[in-house]
Amino acid sequence: MANQRKKLTERTVKAASKTGIIWDTELTGFGLRVGATAKTFFYNYRIHGRERRIKIDTYPKASAESARDDAETYALKVRKGIDPLAEKQAADGASTVADVWADYEQEHLPDKRESSRRGDRDNWERYIKPELGRFKAETVTRSQVRKLHASIKQHAPYQANRVLALVSKLFNHAKIEMDLSIDNPAKGVKKAPEKARKRYLSAEELQRLARVLEEYPHLARHRLPKSEWKHKDGKLVKSKLVRLKRPDPERLQSANIVRLIMLTGCRKGEALAAKWDQFDLAAGKWTKPAATTKQDQDHEAPLNSAAVELLKGIEQEGEYLFPGEHGHQKDIKSAWETIRERAGIEDVRVHDLRHTYASVLVSAGQSLPVIGALLGHTQSKTTERYAHLFDDPLRKATEAAGAVLSGKPKAEVHDIKEARK
Hints:
By secondary structure, the protein is α+β, with helices and mostly antiparallel strands.
């Protein structure tokens, strides 16, 4: 976020659009924080050897003139040795964890990617709010946080760690941004072990998946009469799939989303939010804007001929490649569950298609830097997770070399990935 120095007037505040902080040139400590969706006036000061910041109000709820008046009032109190933030907190009463979340939601969530905002809100509503929301922030103990983490860890260790990370962010925000005199109760809580997934589809699984993607748009779920309900694999089956004469548009769209991920190795969020103006089919490239990428920077990726053919076959309806009720399609969870069940790959996540794309590149002899560039990795360490896949082609290469150098017939080479099954 960029910092600027300008006199904060109604004109400059209204025109401010670049995220960052604008410091007033006339009143030291008076500033405006420009976020993605909100502009917030504040006053920054030092008292008793501590740097503190007090929020004034958001624009246009407060004008530049009224915010300056408040900042000048705070400045006068500081000169008299009065801490305006401590004074305000005493008048408001101790903040609850819900109060901290409300401040965090307003100050930080607007600057995050859509998927991150959705994840934070979901973790707050489902896990943190019910257990900690009503408590005063200063009273929350490490034991409470550890108990919350443990309850989630039993069935979802990755989710438990994401919740723990958000709790830590909230209390850091409370201490730094809201200047509450509290310790972070998430500090010292041990994370659940996380093992990187190494699930890649075999050639035979990819063929099954391709066949299912072809048939999926022609299927519809038909609800069975209660007399025909039955139990299968521990589940009550209330419907069956029937074949349609014409492809269902929604199912066709879901199938195409999966195909695009398979053919490009893109992230699910990048596929869902893709716009037609990002693609140059003649040049065969996809320019992903920073707002949709995990690394928050533009990523230009070449498209293979199969991906170009797929895109040419999709009918354009508006700006989004995959339009939905509120802009673009938001998820394919239900569709993917049906697709992977019919393909017999129930343990495969949508993100594993991205891993499979990388594994195919390895098998084709591509280097880690090339794979990283195609996947949009900014750090080589991220791509190194695929290094173990080089075992098979290296083994085959050394066997071939051994056969030539020894003058003996080429030894039989077993595919390690097949042997692992």
